[in-house]
Amino acid sequence: DAKTTQPPSMDCAEGRAANLPCNHSTISGNEYVYWYRQIHSQGPQYIIHGLKNNETNEMASLIITEDRKSSTLILPHATLRDTAVYYCIVRVIGEAGNMLTFGGGTRLMVKP
Amino acid sequence: DGGITQSPKYLFRKEGQNVTLSCEQNLNHDAMYWYRQDPGQGLRLIYYSQIVNDFQKGDIAEGYSVSREKKESFPLTVTSAQKNPTAFYLCASTGGFYTEAFFGQGTRLTVV
């Protein structure tokens, strides 16, 4: 399974862009990158996913490097409600099935 | 509305007792998962099931058991063999490949 590495914590000023990095240097060609976030004591919430092209939705943008070894989740205008733990996941899909393996995540603190 | 429901939200049990956590989904998803989360930590996979009547161990299956008799239901039993069962338990489900996972709101189990 490809593993991900994220910084344990980051701060961001309210209204500014939050850029959360993720390293997945052992990712395979058919593995997608997914991002989730978890607000304290709740179930994780899906944000976005991508294979190799940059993706954007109403919540965030996902930038994946050309070699696919790293990615960045961008929250364009962070609010206090974006304070959460953000998980970068490489989705393993193959003979073992349809698995989701989480790492430690990045605790994002958005400050006024 | 479609979703995934875990019950109860809080559960207290005496040491040495088995306890079963419920997870039900009405999303018609084939795959279901159980995760454990300890304070300040990420999610660790306990068991997962790709189809009815089939399931596989995750990274920390010891002391846990599951069943998948119906597509909608994937209950988790925390047995007395689990050395440190107090934790936050999350259930998830996924549809086809390359789709996002949906999570329940979790069950916080406390063993005294």
List keywords for this structure.
A: 112 residues; mainly beta; 6-stranded mixed sheet; 4-stranded antiparallel sheet; 0% helix; globular; B: 112 residues; 7-stranded mixed sheet; 11 strands
Structural class of chain A: mainly beta
Radius of gyration of chain B: 13 Å
Distance between the termini of chain B: 36 Å
**What is the average of the pLDDT values of chain A?**
89
- Strand percentage of chain B, roughly? over 45%
Helix tally of chain A equals 0
What is the H-and-E element order of chain A?
Answer: EEEEEEEEEE
**Alpha carbon gyration radius of chain A:** 14 Å
- What is the chain-wise order of helices and strands of chain B? EEEEEEEEEEE
Helix content of chain B: under 10%
Fraction of residues in H or I helices of chain A: under 10%
Shape of chain B: globular
- Largest inter-chain interface? A-B, 23 and 27 residues
Main sheet specs of chain B: 7 strands, mixed
| Count of extended strands of chain A | 10
Cα separation of the termini of chain A: 39 Å
pLDDT < 50 stretches of chain A:
none
Query: What is the residue-mean pLDDT of chain B, rounded to a whole number?
Result: 92
User: Which geometry of chain A do the CA atoms define?
Assistant: globular
What does this structure look like?
The complex is a heterodimer of chains A (about 110) and B (about 110). Chain A is mainly beta. Chain A has strands at about 10-15, 20-25, 30-40, 45-50, 55, 60-65, 70-75, 85-95, 95-100, 105-110. In chain A, strands 1, 3, 4, 8, 9 and 10 form a six-stranded mixed sheet that branches. A four-stranded antiparallel sheet of chain A has the order 2-7-6-5, with no helix packed on it. The termini of chain A are far apart. Chain B is built from no helices and eleven strands. With about 110 residues, chain B is an all-beta fold. Chain B has strands at about 5, 10-15, 20-25, 30-35, 45-50, 55, 65, 75-80, 85-95, 100-105, 105-110. The model of chain B has no long low-confidence stretch (mean pLDDT about 90). In chain B, a hairpin with a 2-residue loop joins strand 5 and strand 6 (about 55). Chain B starts with a strand and ends with a strand. The interface of A and B includes residues 91 and 96 of A.
